Write the structure tokens for this entry.
Amino acid sequence: MQVQRGYLKILVSGPYASGKTTFVRTVAENVLSTEVPVTTPGEQKVKEYTTVAFDYGKLYLDGIPIYLFGTPGQTRLQFMWRVLAQGMHGYLFLVDGSSLLEVYRARGIYTYMKSLGNYPHIIAVNKQDVKGSVPPSRVASIFNVDPAYVAPLVARDKAMAISVLKKLVDLILTRREERVVP
Ligand SMILES: Nc1nc2c(ncn2[C@@H]2O[C@H](COP(=O)(O)OP(=O)(O)OP(=O)(O)O)[C@@H](O)[C@H]2O)c(=O)[nH]1
Ligand SMILES: [Mg+2]
């Protein structure tokens, strides 16, 4: 299977604290992250550090070099998404599935992501290890998307994280073949 440019650039996007940095650190080695202490009172309750520029990591999947770019999640830094999306082949959209409120919050941000262009993407419903987490089928119906493009995720679990990434890579490669075959 031919990969244009010899590599894939994949964006890991999603709302604040959905697990983007965790995901990149789980699947790639020597990850570069730009995290600083959280200063916003409401967001401080959720965690101590937040990404302000991006997470960067590289790995190989079936011999293909994959460059991962994790976005910041804070809405005031959303301008970075467009910058980081430059030249991407596709993206993962992480949703914090540990509460229904987070899923509804993520919906508007997903709409913004789609406004950047019609890129292949997978919605990954993270934190499936949390008791009572929202199942992917429910997220698919709330987001009004085909359940085939919504996958369960525990970003701390390497096997699961790699399998979600593979799903996206397969989608990117399939779409590319569809484009060349008239
Ligand atoms: N239970 C559970 N917690 C997770 C999982 N993945 C991430 N977390 C936790 O969720 C919180 C947010 O994770 P981050 O990786 O910092 O999220 P982020 O999307 O990079 O956050 P920002 O860069 O600030 O937007 C942290 O406390 C993580 O430990 C998971 O699969 N399960
Ligand atoms: Mg982060």
